[in-house]
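Quick one: structure for this chain?
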Amino acid sequence: MTRRLTARGQRRRQELVEFAADQFASKGYHPTSVADIVDGLGVGKGVFYWYFESKEELFRQILAEAQRDLRRVQRHAIADEPDPVRRIEAGIGASVEWLDRNRRLFVLLEFARTEERFAPLIRMGEEQAVADALPHVKAGIDAGLIRREDPLVLTQAILGVTGHLARVLVLEEGRPAAEAARAAAAFCLEGVLSPASARRRLAREAD
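Got it. Here's what it folds into:
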């Protein structure tokens, strides 16, 4: 549902979005009702249905806006960086920091991944993330900075490692975002082998 909103209407809509996101993250999507949302804000149900057709539509809007904001932050973080590997590293850092600052949205994105009705929206966001990151991986390969492997596989691996470490270290264990970002960047850009082991492995392969 699309309406032309006044500045006041935009503020009211944002209040609904933010309060609902808090409720969904703390109580869960299914236990939270429209009545919980409007009662918590002290408004009538008519106000809710002026902006949203249903709780499901509101939740979809929360997910879509979260994905757009994350993407905006990522683009801003790499905008002025000419080095593709540094762009990848900056993108990892920006992603983990955003997830740390927006833990309630992180919780909702993780929940949506498990729900059949919302999972396609999450998959679309993931496909967009791959499309955004892939050119930087390709540029790194072309510059001789990243090993010549399938760039799509490498991109999927980078995003997978970053997402997993952010979930485990930041969301579940409460560690600092910077720690998770460093771990993800180090693994993605350096791998698991020590420099000495990597040199020995390369020497054996060359023989």
